[in-house]
Predict the structure.
Amino acid sequence: MEFKLAAKGVKPTAMRLLVMDVLSKQDAAISLSELESSFAKADRITLYRTLKTFETHNLIHRVDDGTGALKYALCIDGCECHLKDLHVHFHCTTCKRTYCLADNTIPFVTLPEKFITQEINMVIKGLCQKCSP
């Protein structure tokens, strides 16, 4: 974990290492509240700042899955969070978990002249493999 932080230019503090450890053990994106519940005592502001630092340095990406709470997931190796690195997310309507589908890139969309893409988000909603019959 320490190497991954240092490779992205992030000082590996104790809290940052703990947050990286929690994120690395997730199989789905998690919210700030879910991250906070992973610690007995943690300052919400410190956790939020840690997430923002990680996002700024392309260690994690943020997912707006339409639930009203942003979720966060580790970026895969080589991701620089450019448009070409963006992938589809899947939100399970039963268990409320949001998964990164890193093998499914967001399709390229040709925009009209003078339209400039700044952000793309694609969320598919349905039942995950754990919740489907």
About this structure: The mean pLDDT is 90. The helical segments are 2-7, 14-24, 32-36, 44-56. The domain at 2-126 is CATH 1.10.10.10 (Arc Repressor Mutant, subunit A).
